[in-house]
Amino acid sequence: MAIDFLREVADSYRGQITRLLIGGILGPRGDAYGLNRDLTAQSAEDYHAVQLETLKATGVDFVCALTFNNVPEAIGAARAAARIGVPQSISLAPDASGRLKSEPGPGGGDQ
User: Fold this and answer.
1) Strands of the chain, DSSP E
2) Which among 104, 107, 86, 87 is positioned nearest to 96, based on CA atoms?
C-alpha cells in the first residue's frame, strides 16, 4: 500500500525531522476541467466519504482535495472530512477568467 511505503521512507528521517506528516489526495468526481451539473453537496459528501474513510483507515495525517471546480462538491467533501475526522485542505481550480465552473457569469456556470 502506498501509505505504508511512505511511512517506511519517513522512518529513516524521524530523528532528523521533528514532525513528518503523511497526506492523502482526494480528487474531484469526474473531469476536473468540466462541470458535473448533477453533483450536489449531499451527493459529493456521500461519494467522497468512501474515499475519506479509506484514507483515514490507512492512518493519513491529512487529506488534500485538489482541482475542485464545483462549489457544491467542495462543500460536500469538506462536510465528509469534518464528519469523519480527517483534516483536509481544498484547492479550487478556477478557469482562465478566474471563476469556478459552477459560478454564474462569464467563464463559469453555463460555459
Assistant:
1) 23-26, 62-68, 88-92
2) 107
In one-letter notation, the amino acid at residue 64 is C
Phi, psi of 7 (to 5 degrees): -65, -40
Task: For residue 76, give the H/E element and its range.
Answer: helix 71-84
pLDDT tens digits, residue range 18-74? Answer: 888 999 999 998 877 777 778 899 999 999 999 999 999 999 999 999 999 888 999
Stated pTM of the model: 0.83
pLDDT single digits (tens) 70-106? 889 999 999 999 999 999 999 998 888 888 877 665 5
Question: How far is residue 22's CA from residue 111's CA, in Å, rounded to a whole number?
Answer: 37
Sheet bearing 62-68, strands edge to edge: 23-26, 62-68, 88-92
Inter-residue contact 69 to 54 (CB < 8 Å)? no
93 CB-side CA count, 13 A: 15
